[in-house]
Amino acid sequence: MTLADLAHHLGATLQGDPSVEVTGVAGLEIAGPGDVTFVANPKYSGLARTTQATAVLVEPTFPEIPSATLRLDNPYLAFARAIELFYQSPVYAPGIHPTAVIEPTARVGANAHIGAYAVLSEHVTVGDNAVILPHVVLYPYATVGDHFFAHAHAVVREHCRLGSHVTLQNGAIIGADGYGFARDHAAPLGKAWYKIRQSGTTVLEDDVEVQANSTIDRASIGQTLIQAGGKIDNLVQVGHGSTVGPDSLLCAQVGLAGSTTVGKNVILAGQAGSAGHNTIGDGAIVTAQSGVAGNVAPGKTVSGTPAIDNSEWLRAMARFPRIPELFRELKRFGK
């Protein structure tokens, strides 16, 4: 592909020889001749001047560098689109593998690909253009929309409802039982916890992706809801009765206890967690490994455990290494 063609596909302004060929994409540190790379963070600007890449995706005001530049407002998004031009995912032709188990009451839309040993249980509904790869299981009365894509060993439990363009990565579990037990003080030892029937469901709206080995529990009553555009990373636990708002990101190993409400455009960074019945407001950010013990106001960035305002946490962390020194000073004065 020439730089002129790439600029056309991405809607970029090219500074460089339009006839030069590019053959792939690579990160800034390892890119070589023939590669396209990008700079989205100013701290990597120095690397852009020394990169061996043929072309670099940059913002419109980025200074000139030896490599050709493709200038546009969002280089990172453009790089994501450039990857799609050079890497083609496997294509799964419509058809049903002979080892798949599909109950007579299940309804499967047009152009579906159903892989080996997949199971579609009683009264399942699958929309058009679905791709269901080997060992995926849809429990009774599960409903999934058009362009559903489930990688191997994903599971959708009974009565769960998934919208269109939903993607489940390997091992994602939608609608497992919520963690609900009531204490029975009269019960003998070993039977003290009475399991609460998880009679609710889990709902994923359109354009949701749940990545590998994450679990979104069903509600004890009502529903657990992931609203449109939510992205759930690997090893995330969403507790029963929780709601995650539109376009929110839950990064790796995030945990939400039951009945947590997460607003729209929220980011919960890796290993962040929330106690149950909290509300995390629209646009809030919970930084990595933070623990939310109460509500978080819209637009707020919080850090630490228990999570506090990020600026306060940064000041506290700056002073933390001085605690031994301060303690020695106090001892000098007999305190």
Description:
With 335 residues, the chain is of the alpha/beta class. The chain folds into two domains: 3-86, Udp-n-acetylmuramoylalanyl-d-glutamate--2,6- Diaminopimelate Ligase, Chain: A, domain 1 (3-Layer(aba) Sandwich); 95-313, UDP N-Acetylglucosamine Acyltransferase, domain 1, CATH 2.160.10. The strands form five sheets. The chain has a twelve-stranded mixed sheet with strand order 6-9-12-15-18-23-26-29-32-35-37-38, covered by helices on one side. It is flat and about 75 Å long. The model has no long low-confidence stretch (mean pLDDT 96).
- Any guess at the CATH architecture of the largest domain? 3 Solenoid
Strand order of the largest sheet: 6-9-12-15-18-23-26-29-32-35-37-38
Q: Fill in the CATH topology of the largest domain.
A: UDP N-Acetylglucosamine Acyltransferase, domain 1
Percent helix, as a range, is 10-25%
Number of helices, counting only DSSP H or I runs of 4 residues or more: 5
Q: Assign the CATH superfamily of the largest domain.
A: Hexapeptide repeat proteins
The overall strand count is: 38
Based on CA atoms alone, the radius of gyration comes out at: 25 Å
Task: Assign an overall shape.
Answer: flat
What's the level 1 CATH class of the largest domain?
A: Mainly Beta
Count up the domains.
2
Query: Biggest β-sheet, characterized?
Result: 12 strands, mixed
Q: Unreliable segments (pLDDT under 50, ≥5 consecutive)? A: none
Query: Average pLDDT, to the nearest integer?
Result: 96
- Give the N-to-C terminal Cα separation: 73 Å
* Helix and strand composition category: alpha/beta
